[in-house]
Amino acid sequence: MESIEQINYIKAASLIVYEAITKEEGLATVWTKKLKVKQEVGFVNEFDFDEGYLTKMKITELEEGKKVVWECIDSDEEWIGTFVSFEISQEQSNTKIVLKHYNWKEKTDYFRWCGYNWAMFLKRLKDHCENEFADQKI
User: Fold this and answer.
1) Are 7 and 104 spatial neighbours (Cβ–Cβ below 8 Å)?
2) Where exactly are the structural domains of the chain?
3) What is the pLDDT of residues 51-71, one digit of tens each?
C-alpha cells in the first residue's frame, strides 16, 4: 500500500490548527466551501468539489489538539478505502502538522497529483491559522 506524507509548521497554537481541520469555518477556508462537517467520531463529513460526487470522510479518531483521522467511504474510486490522518504537536512557537493519506492501492498519476494538492491544503491551512488568529499567542 502507498502513502502520501506531508509536513508543515504553523505559527499558531495546536488547538487553533485542530479546530481549523475539524470545524466548518476552517475547512471551508482551506478545502471547499461546500461541506457538511461535525466534530464527532463516527460522523461522515461531506465535501463537494463540483466533480459530480461527494467526498465522504468518516471520522474514526479525534484527539483534541493532537490528532484527526478520516476514512474515505465515498469519493473518487482511488480514494475509497484510504485514510487521512492529521497529527498535530506543539513545538515551541510552532505547531507541527503531519498529514498522511495512506492505504492507496498503487502509485498512479492521480496519487502523485493528490500529493501536490495536500501540500497546497497545508499551505492554505498555515495561511488561515497564522492570519486569522495572528493576535492569539501560542
Assistant:
1) no
2) 2-132
3) 889 999 999 999 999 999 999
**C-alpha distances out from residue 119 to 7, 18, 40, 115, 138, Å:** 8, 17, 25, 6, 24
Q: How far apart are CA 64 and CA 137, in angstroms?
A: 18
Opening angle at CA 35, ends 14 and 40, nearest 5:
55
pTM of the model: 0.93
Summarize pLDDT for 78-104 with one digit per residue, the tens: 999 999 999 999 988 899 999 999 999
Give the E-state strand segments of the chain in sequence order. 2-10, 34-36, 44-48, 54-63, 67-74, 83-91, 94-104
Provide the CATH topology of domain 2-132. Answer: Alpha-D-Glucose-1,6-Bisphosphate; Chain A, domain 4 (3.30.530)
31's grid cell? 478545502
